[in-house]
Amino acid sequence: MLGERTNVDKAASVGNYLNLYFGQNQGVRLGESTVASCKAHARMPEKRVKGQLKILVNRDAGKVFLDFVEEGRVVHIDVYHRPGKIDPRVIARAIFTAIDEHFLEKDPQLRYAEDERFNMVIAYASRIYITTNQGRGTLYNLLQDEVEAFAEYDEGWDHVHILAQLDREDYYLVYIIAEIVEEVILTNGIKLSKVRNIIHGNEKQAQDSYAGYLKLPWKHFKGQQARHLPEKENVNQLIIKLAEKLGGVEEIQEFMENYSTNIFKRKGIQQQKKKWGDIEHDVKQLEELGILKDTPFGKIMTGKGLKLKEFVINHKCELETEIRRNTRRLPSGGGGRFKKLGQIDRKTSKVEYTNRNKTVNNPEQNWSGDLAVPETVIQALKNSYLRGDDHLTIKKQDLHYYEKKSYVPVDICLLIDASGSMAGDKRQAACFLAEHLLLTGKEKVAVVTFQERGSNVVVPFTRKQMVLKQGLATINPAGLTPMADGIVNAVNLIKDSKVRNPMLVLITDGIPNIPLWTLDAKTDALDAAALIAKEKIRFVCIGVEAHRFYLEKLSRQAEGVVYLVDDLNKDNLINIVRMEKQTSSDNKLA
Amino acid sequence: MIPFYMLERYEGNEPLFELVTMSMVSTYAGEPLHVHAEGLRGTGKTTIMRSCRGILPNITRIKGCIYNCDPENPHCPKHRDMTPEEITALGTEDIPMPFLEISHSAKVGTVAGSIDLARLTDATNPAAQLLPGLIPQAHRGIIFIDEINRLADTSPEITDILLDVMGNKPGHLQIEEAGLPTVDISVSVSVWAASNPDEDPGPLEEIRRQLSDRFDLVCYMGRPDSVDVLSHMLEENSHQHKIRNANKKGSNVYDESKNNKYRDDIMKWSEQYGKTDLPDFLRNFIARLYIKHNLESIRAIEAMQQGAILHSLIKNRDKVMIADVNRILPLALKHRVDGDTLVKLINDVESRGSREGILSFKNKQNKRVEEEEEYFQHNARALKDMSRSELVNTEKDLTPTHG
């Protein structure tokens, strides 16, 4: 038997464990500085605990890094080290030799079958990918000195990043690889980093840490006038960031009040989170920027923070403009992260207007529009000259008309689920959608919410941003989901308002659980949906995949469409509503 | 209208004064510089731009040429094929540098060119002939467009013409009129525009991205924030004050001759413009910014180069310095990149101390290293030295249990 200290035994035992844990979708810390799993790994800067790594269970390593279709094919091995230069070729050679030696140790008979042994090892060589801060490539290529350049944002700048396409019975190689990589790092005179802890979790949308690159002017006064503008850009950008999170200048001020020294104005973090979502990240960033600081009485604003507050108050006008400009911006790219089911079939009415800037001259067509007199006369003059008439004549082909344009106005009523589960980011996304629609379109927007036991018209149909903002500020998600009540309320609002081609957009992350007429909440909502169809309102439901079955039924009842999203974020919401607005104007015109 | 010299200058509108001066210098030297002023309503964008009409220098053209042909370099269909002798025979004349406006009732015909009605209706000798529109007439001068975001929204046809005119330096214009041969000429016109991004239909870059990119430099007007500036502005504009001034100086309210100083400066600077170039290290630096920050439009870095040189000139310096690039950076980029990229770019240039040279790219990496040293402790033991029971650690093993 082989003893405790031999590598073969250690490797085999690790292989067995890995088989067990990887099979359960888990990752492990191998030794102290290596993390292995079949998933992608992430650092957790948002938490205070340092040295912690997160195994992203929803991100398969093969899919993320190597564009694999099938999951679980690739083992991801990260060996963390103190930053320092490590040549991937050295790592490659070391791994090659280690595997070779391992085979030899396991089966000393191979000593006499060198070719076979070589072939066994080389079979792995093209299935192992190595990235260090000096370059990357497959083991095979690295052995031939073919190194691809390391890009700044690649994985691997403070760890050796290895992807190995291994079968389950080959997992023992993970140990062999990890051990030799550690050895190479140490022989390079670089210390190994200790991974304190690993946790498992899903990848959230990447949050950017702006504290790293923003530079606020109030730090060092160097007294250079030339630094004027750039500083302003920095402060502006910080406000924009905060506004993106919180909603607007008013909200930033409200947020800052929470960190004033006046304890009566302060609100707890829980209350803030309910309104604005996960703000801990931002609080942390602000601390890093030196705007907030910790005191025995909680976090308060620093002198710099007060300067920032003063800046916000003094430049409210400009800042609001900037923020509105940001709200108008269309989400870039993407657009495919949702599924559409159903089709709306409604007639639309269009608005026509005359475009005085453009005239059309189309002798073939009969035209009923405004005659553009100057253009007609000029055309006639010219044509008379070309025709060789002896005096001015106006013929049919000389006639110019002003061009007519038309567009389909779609007034939108947002029906927002304000139950407890919508608190935070989802609420913010829905509010952002409302503002975006108001600022980018020419049509009216209304907002109805439902929560606890009833529903509210938060914003009646309006074109005024102030009215909208004030209404949105009152949304405070809590309680259950009385969807039927919300639908009835919204339909009544649409019926009672003067609106054109109304569209009702329901945004929810749940299903109804408070009834209106009977004792069955779901059936009530379906009955309410029938009213939407009766009033000939276009209905768009945006919900999550988990409730697909019910939401599909609901939208079928309302003769509308349902969009299933993986995440109720603002890009998804905006893309969906814009797409629906577009299709309704493309629809056959009445 | 208040003349240029009388306009109040404060921190917020200083960039616009610089921009229009730079553009006039450049235009006079023969290279257009397109500028766009964005800002809140009533902050004086249009006032400043229009007042520049008063300080424009004269240009020399072939006598009577409606296309403003430069006698040295005629470009219009009528003069371009003539010999220098023929042109000398025609004579020259001095006219003020053109400053024309495209209004919102403009049509393609009035902007590009259309049939000349006067000639067509000439009783004795009628002829079908092209009358150049505003843009060809503004050759070697400036075209001003107020509320350009609205124009881009309502007149896509005119926008297309502008795209062509502003696409290259000099630009290109094609005039078509049914029944007449197409005229193809090059035009060198600086386009100045003003808009309020907050008003319908929104900021220019959301309406017509290409057009927004055509502007070399964009400036964002700030509001005055000093009581002194504002009260002085009010005083200057009060009716009383104007009457008093008028009484003092006779019939004219303003002393137009004070504008001459600005005019002379422009002529002096544009002469220097032909002699000043960007030092190689700055050129490399700008080029690296393009690569490092993945900028899209090459116009952005061209604008930075042109802007930096012009900025150094109007500051009466004979050398371009990093401070000039610094100053121009936000103006050349704010309409082209998102806020984050802009701030990173600016801070890149700004963060030059003795340790980190301006051209050093280590900067970022160093910062990372510092950050990361905090993230991990570097005291891990190697696998080799561990016993078998220590090898595999799961989340459960590593997380300290409470209670």
Order of strands, main sheet of chain A, comes to 12-20-19-18-15-16-17
Number of helices of chain A: 19
Class derived from helix and strand content of chain A: alpha/beta
Low-confidence stretches of chain A: 219-229
Separate helix tally of chain B: 19
- CATH architectural type of the domain at 4-57 and 138-169 and 180-224 and 233-271 in chain B: 3-Layer(aba) Sandwich
- Report the helical percentage of chain B: 40-55%
Number of domains of chain A: 4
CA radius of gyration of chain A is 32 Å
The amount of beta strand of chain B, in percent, is 5-15%
What percentage of amino acids of chain A are in beta strands? 15-25%
Beta strand count of chain A = 20
N- and C-termini, Cα separation of chain A? 87 Å
Largest interface: A-B, 84 and 76 residues
Mean pLDDT of chain A: 82
Task: Tell me the helix content of chain A.
Answer: 40-55%
Q: Give me the side-by-side strand order of the main sheet of chain B.
A: 4-7-10-1-11
Q: Return the average pLDDT of chain B rounded to an integer.
A: 84
Tell me about this structure.
The complex is a heterodimer of chains A (590) and B (403). Chain A folds into 4 domains: 7-201, no CATH class; 213-328, Orthogonal Bundle (Arc Repressor Mutant, subunit A); 352-407, no CATH class; 412-586, 3-Layer(aba) Sandwich (Rossmann fold). Helix content of chain A is 41%, strand content 20%. Chain A has helices at residues 7-23, 61-66, 88-106, 114-125, 139-143, 172-187, 228-246, 249-257, 269-276, 280-288, 303-314, 316-328, 373-387, 425-440, 465-473, 483-496, 521-534, 548-557, 570-586; strands at residues 28-30, 34-37, 39-43, 52-60, 74-80, 128-132, 135-138, 159-165, 197-201, 292-295, 298-301, 338-341, 351-360, 401-407, 412-417, 445-451, 454-462, 503-507, 538-544, 561-565. Chain A has a 7-stranded mixed beta sheet with strand order 12-20-19-18-15-16-17, sandwiched between helices. In chain A, helix 14 (425-440) runs antiparallel to helix 15 and helix 14 packs parallel to helix 19. Chain A starts with 6 loop residues before the first helix and ends with a helix. The model of chain A is unreliable at 219-229 (pLDDT under 50). Chain B is globular. In chain B, 37% of the residues are buried. In chain B, strand 8 (171-175) and strand 9 form a beta hairpin. A 5-stranded parallel beta sheet of chain B has the order 4-7-10-1-11, sandwiched between helices. In chain B, strands 2-3 form a two-stranded antiparallel sheet. Chain B has helices at 14-29, 45-51, 84-90, 108-111, 117-120, 134-137, 148-154, 156-167, 204-207, 209-214, 227-237, 239-249, 260-273, 280-292, 298-314, 322-333, 339-350, 362-375, 395-398, and strands at 35-38, 58-62, 92-96, 99-102, 113-115, 130-132, 142-146, 171-175, 183-187, 190-195, 217-220, 392-393. At the A-B interface, helix 1, strand 1, helix 6, strand 9 and helix 7 of A face helix 16, helix 17, helix 18 and strand 12 of B. Strand 1 (28-30) of chain A pairs antiparallel with strand 12 of chain B.
